[in-house]
Q: What sequence folds into this?
């Protein structure tokens, strides 16, 4: 009988904060006051860094093993640096002592890329017309700045596109094994996915395509005292449809059960109007946005299904899928009405 592997394989470990602090002292600055405190364990692990010279606070992200390759992270950081150079307020990556913007640590489950970013101060955006308008302005500035970037010349071809395979087909494949015991629910989701895929495929030739943030919900932004919105967390970014990028905010407003639907709709209209003051949207893009809200819901379910080996099937049970399906039913009814 063969011996058990040591260390025993893990799916997603939590790196020791003290070890991470020592790593940053070695790779960024040998500061005796440098400390690391875990903020959030999610797809990636996010920690607050204190005591880094020149930065009262910073943020360390340790990407999940197998989630993003080194080439994909390099693309992300180059994207951020490119739009920052064009004047877009974003959380920029901080360079290590020899100039590299990221490193790789040997976690028990496999190599994990890590990077340190500027800390973004300011308050969370509220579903108000004023905050939404500021966010729409920021989104327009981001897309305009991104139009001037050519990341394909330096490894951009390694970044995944935010296309229908990424948003609908792949997520649905991840969902099917978890819904074998709920065939009616699965059939309804498959029907919604098929309708949405067909309609978006028909609109696709007329839709604006470009570099996208990929996750423009309000949690990935802060509103400063100057009234400007600063963006962070470009982890889901890539080349994609701009209408999808905007639809993520609409999805977040509409799917949040704590938001009054009328308040959310006013905020969405303010966001869209402010965006269009900075950039025009074609009729096809406007028609596609509600469809991309549906696609975003399908993508989100697939994202969660892909992590079931981390938190278990009892956590991601039928209630979760029924909740999202109810939202999609209501969304379709509201759109058709």
A:
């Amino acid at each position: 009988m063969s011996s058990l592997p040591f260390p025993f394989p893990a799916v997603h470990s939590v790196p020791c904060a003290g070890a991470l602090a020592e790593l940053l002292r070695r790779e960024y600055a040998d500061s005796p006051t440098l400390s690391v405190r875990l903020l959030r364990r999610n797809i990636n692990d996010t920690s607050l860094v204190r005591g880094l010279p020149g930065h009262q606070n910073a943020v360390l992200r340790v990407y999940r093993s197998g989630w993003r390759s080194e080439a994909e992270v390099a693309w992300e950081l180059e994207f951020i640096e490119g739009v920052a150079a064009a004047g877009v307020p974003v959380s920029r990556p901080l360079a290590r002592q020899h100039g590299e913007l990221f490193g790789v640590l040997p976690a028990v489950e496999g190599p994990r890329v890590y990077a340190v970013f500027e800390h973004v101060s300011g308050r969370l955006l509220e579903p108000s017309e004023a905050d939404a308008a500021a966010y729409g302005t920021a989104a327009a500035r981001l897309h305009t700045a991104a139009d001037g970037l050519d990341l394909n010349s330096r490894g951009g071809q390694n970044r995944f596109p935010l296309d229908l395979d990424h948003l609908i087909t792949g997520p649905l494949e991840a969902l099917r094994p978890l819904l074998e015991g709920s065939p009616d629910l699965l059939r309804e989701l498959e029907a919604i996915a098929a309708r949405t895929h067909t309609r978006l495929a028909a609109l696709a030739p007329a839709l604006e395509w470009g570099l996208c943030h990929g996750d423009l919900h309000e949690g990935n932004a802060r509103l400063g005292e100057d009234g400007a919105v600063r963006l962070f967390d470009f982890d889901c970014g890539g080349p994609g449809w701009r209408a999808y990028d905007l639809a993520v905010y609409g999805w977040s407003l509409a799917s949040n059960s704590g938001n009054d639907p009328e308040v959310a709709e006013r905020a969405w209209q303010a966001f869209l109007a402010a965006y269009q003051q900075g950039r025009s949207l074609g009729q096809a893009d406007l028609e596609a946005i509600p469809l991309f809200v549906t696609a975003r819901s399908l993508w989100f379910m697939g994202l969660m299904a892909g992590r079931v080996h981390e938190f278990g099937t009892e956590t991601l049970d039928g209630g979760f899928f029924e909740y999202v399906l109810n939202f999609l039913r209501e969304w379709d009814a509201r759109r058709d009405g």
Remarks:
- DSSP finds ten helices and ten strands in the chain.
- The CA atoms of residues 137 and 275 lie 5 Å apart.
- The longest helix spans residues 283-305.
